[in-house]
Amino acid sequence: MGADMKMILRWFPFGDDSVTLKQIRQTPGISGVATCLPRAPAGEVWPLETVKALKAEIEEAGLEMEVIESVNVHEDIKKGLPTRDKYIAAYIKTLQNLAYVGVKCLCYNFMPVIDWARSDLAHTLPDGSYAMVYRHEEVLKMNPASMAAAMSDESRGYSLPGWEPERLAAMAGDIRFYRNLSRGAYWGNMKYFLDAVIPEAERFGIVLAIHPDDPPWPLYGLPKLITCAEHIRTFLALNGSRHNGLTLCAGSLGADPDNDIPAIAREFSGMGRVHFAHLRNLRRLSARDFDETAHPSACGDLDMFEILKALYDTGFNGYIRPDHGRMIWGEKARPGYGLYDRALGANYLLGLWEAIKKMDKMDKINKMDKMS
Ligand SMILES: [Mn+2]
To answer: Which CATH code fits 6-371?
Structure first.
């Protein structure tokens, strides 16, 4: 089985990141970046000229731009409003522009109103580093708007993906809307989107990889669908094309102790439907509370060797990035996206991958020796 992968880092363009392309280029083993247009309003076409300029900047730095994370899905598509067709057409046009400049994989999410959520973006861990953490009771005490305000206060002036101003402005009305929408209807809106977009993605040669809901449980009465193996099965069956795929976000799914991440990796990568993996670790304090931690298995509750082994064994040949890192060594950066801890994480993951690959080759040679 020809498993191989590319290790990339997330990077935000147009001065919206403390980390430079030059620094990423000097990080061993990194072939490219997952990037985006940070302030592009959902529902608008990403202009070809802008996308071309972004690609040129990344290539000049000696890196690839094969992955975009994310193109936001307009709320009207998620709500199933009559205006959705216009926004779906814009989404398809954006896909076409991205494919035109060589993008091969798009990570996106279908979370209603609220993207990812944390109660604290800079919690001090015992070793003095800072990490993002989640305390369910504290999140429930906040309302989405006050959480948004708290998060943007801690964001050091960087845009927070998923917490765009236009999304915040519509939040209260949107939450009322979703409380009256059945989960079946929400799945239906997802299928409507996929059935329109996936055939075009096939034509353009670009795979879509939905990001799981983070955290993987309901909040404020909003539907949360991409949260566990059963729901991922349902999602992939909505449209059976391999272009309708998954971003295996170990940290998002792994916050729920009932999710067996190596098993999830094995099942869906075995179907050829995992195109992108976000690998990070976390320490669960209870079934609904966790701290993000450093990447190594010993630092958290997720077994990174088992997750990578599952991907390798199933012939994974997509993209991997170390997901959020802690803030260490005095670095000041966008929460979760400093350079140092992610560079450590990437090289830890690369080391595991090399070992898995070489052990597999040795096994095969030993078997052949026995046969001869
Ligand atoms: Mn993720």
So the answer is: 3.20.20.150
